[in-house]
Amino acid sequence: MEKGNNTQFKYFLLQGFGEFGDFRFVLITLFLFAYLLTLGGNMLIIFVIYSHANLHTPMYYFITHLSLLEMWYISTTVPKLLSLLLTSDKRISFEFCFAQLYMFHGLGITECWLLGVMAFDRCNAICKPLKYSAIMHTRRCNQLALICWSSGFLSSAIPMTLTLKLPFCGPNNINHYFCDLAPLMDLACIDTSLNQTINKCVICIINLACLFFIILMYLLIIVSIMKIRSIRGRLKAFSTCSSHLTVVVLFFGTAFIVYVSPKGAHSMDYDKFFALVYAMFIPFLNPFIYSLRNQEVKMAIKKDFQILLQYIFLR
Question: Residue 5 — pLDDT band, cuts 50, 70, 90?
Fold first, then answer.
């Protein structure tokens, strides 16, 4: 298609990581390993939390939601990426492209809200330990989880709808491995500055609101921890937040680089690599972060592993 045609494509062509064609099988192995380990690790966390009554607490309830989200999140992009690397077919249908755009941003915004709720939970556990069970009761946890999921998918409908209404011109090549906002708007026949402004406002307001809320919760946590006299007590209190804080830094750091930094500050190729961090490697790392840095989860996994070994060798 020639540039200037106001055409609605039946499909787009994802370029993926075509520039690394010589390392195709290495990339396939790496991405497939990361994908399977992410699914397996997050399913293990869900199973361990579900099967141990001592882990039926608000903190682990939200970790379960995060694990479910991470499995869905990585499944939104990686299967198509593996397909691009395995075959020469780079096509993605118009409908699937925008469904992927909607799901990716819906899950991403949901994770922002979920990380904020997890910070709220930790703040109440440390700052108001005597009232914690009354504040974070089962009904409230369910309500907060519902707010996270519904807010994420309702918010993502705005940039998706605005981008869907754009007229697209040739060529229909998307310089990315999935359908994202910036590469799609680059194909539009009209000036997209208004769309970019609205999209950035939606994403920035949500990200910044969640981030500022998380910072506020941690300031309250720090103030409360400083009131603890013993160093051991301070370390024990803060250790319950370390996993969450690690995920927050990784997630928000890479997301801000891609979606909040000024246009032209980095190339689309850099965006692709940063996208790999928050769309693939953070979901890949989360099971390790929440298991290796959490004594209760490690003990539960060890107990389940011992039971499994007994079943195998003593049956």
Answer: very low
Cα angle 85-23-178, degrees, rounded to a multiple of 5: 35
* Token pair listed for 77: 């992009």
Rounded-to-integer distance, Cα 267 and Cα 288, Å: 31
For 218, residues 6+ apart whose C-beta sits below 8 A from its C-beta are 119, 123, 241, 245
Question: What single-letter amino acid sits at 76?
Answer: T
| Length reported for the chain | 315
State how far the Cα of 193 lies from the Cα of 191, in Å rounded to an integer: 6
Give 25-67 pLDDT, tens digit per residue. Answer: 888 899 999 999 999 989 988 988 998 888 899 989 999 999 9
Q: Is the pTM of this model over 0.90?
A: no
**261 contacts 271 by C-beta, under 8 angstroms:** no
Write out 201-266 in H/E/C secondary structure.
HHHHHHHHHHHHHHHHHHHHHHHHHHCCCCHHHHHHHHHHHHHHHHHHHHHHHHHHHHHCCCCCCC
Interval 212-239 mean pLDDT: 85
Give the integer Cα–Cα distance in Å for 158 and 154.
8
DSSP annotation of 91? E
In angstroms, what CA-CA distances link 74 with 69, 82, 162, 182, 271? 9, 12, 24, 20, 17
Spatial separation of the C-alpha atoms in residues 79 and 132, rounded to whole Å: 41
Give 297-311 as a DSSP string. HHHHHHHHHHHHHHH
How are strands ordered across the β-sheet holding 91-93?
A: 91-93, 11-14, 173-174
Query: What's at 156, amino acid-wise?
Result: S
Residues β-bridged to residue 188: 168
Q: What is the mean pLDDT of the chain?
A: 83
Beta carbons of 224 and 127 less than 8 angstroms apart:
yes
β-bridge partners, 7: 168
